[in-house]
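Handout, section B. The chain below has 228 residues.
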Amino acid sequence: MKYNDVCTGRFIERPNRFIAFVEIDGVIERCHVKNTGRCKELFVKNAKVVLQHFRDTKRSTKFDIIAVYKGDILINIDSQAPNKVFGESINSIFSDIDVVHPEYAYGDSRIDFYAESGKKRLLIEVKGVTLENKGDSLFPDAPTERGLKHIKELEKSLLDGYEPYLFFVIQMSGMRSFSPNYKMHEEFGMEIEKAHSMGVGVLAYDCIITEDSMILNRPVEIRYRDHS
């Protein structure tokens, strides 16, 4: 996935989930944030941010914030990016894919991808990961009832003959591992463990991140809580 017309700026403040003020070449710009999540550990005053510049005058904002530097780590925060890079790579992750449909209605949810491989029917829910702690990645960064609902739908789909997957796209490079964030949302972490034990596939891949691109890279180790 490639971005056009990118630049960098200095983060000043984020008055709400959708808007942030950034200093770009000495000018304070009102920018759109491409992630409605909290991202509290990323949006700190004076953080270096990466923006995509839109020159269409019909927009209310000329810039989208697409990534943030956390020290030396560049973290893509574009909430649309995980589905895009997964869609670009689905044929290299799963073999012999014949059919792919995004936004598939199942139960009371819309699952990100439905795919067919021979007689197999795959349901794949994709989650973007932007939280990092000393080289390890975690999800979620805030309680997610919607995410919990999606996992339960994947569990139900096993009874209907689907092959379900929960796929975490780590929106940064070089992570050692992925873990459910039990501290933030214990029930979500426990539900992932339950789903995994039932037969739901749980995968996590990091990405190759640059200021103007994001490419799915490699699987990383998934670490669950030690219950011993």
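Note. The chain has a mean pLDDT of 95. Compare this with the example in section A.
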